Amino acid sequence: MPVIWNPWHGCTKISEGCKNCYVFRGDKKWGIDSSQVSKTQNFDLPLKKNRNGEYKIPTGSRVWTCFTSDFFIEQADSWRPIVWQIIQKRKDLHFFIPTKRVYRIQQCLPEDWGEGYDNVTISCTVENQRQANLRLPEYKKLAIKHKSLLCEPLLESIDLEPWIGSWIELIVVGGESGGNARTCNFDWVRNIRAACVESGIPFWFKQTGANFVKEGIAYTIERKSQIAQAKKAGIDFDPT
Questions:
Q1: Rounded to whole angstroms, how far apart are CA atoms 133 and 156?
Q2: Torsion of CA 159, 165, 169, 175, to 10 degrees
Q3: Which helix (H) or strand (E) holds 82?
């Protein structure tokens, strides 16, 4: 079962996909300044144990890491080495780390990184063609054992064919949530899926987003139904 671990909270917006960030939206309700990055009470969550002395996060879990910030944000530079140590200690877990800051990855890797940790996926976010063109050439060159693409929120049709290949393990696609969500078109989703099928790359349609267009018809989808509606489409692809 997936586990969410946010060692720090808060971020700064750097690209088009950040415009309606759910973190900023949620923090605003509580009067929290999302641009202030701070350690959380769960900073060392993977090391926490229950009364029986067992880790609270069981062996084999996938840990979704740093989803209310960016793992490679500058303000976390002094904390990140400790988190790398935690990740190394819990080799029995797999850590999934998304980022828009591909340009900072190399300088933020630990000394023993080598070709990458076996238990870490670093996923590059590409929300539109502009960011795909900027981020993917650099991302492809980086020494990371497990790579994936996160096209969420998907803001337009993206041509990924110049870059995708066997070096990518998964491509995740999803629309934007929230009251001001920008439209996600099913045709854009299917185009990425077609590229995945052609290259033999697993594809996951994670969620529709709040404003979804299919066959020329616009739908407004409640937050609680966005994941279910994506699954109902039945277009996930696993070549294995």
A1: 14
A2: 0
A3: helix 80-89
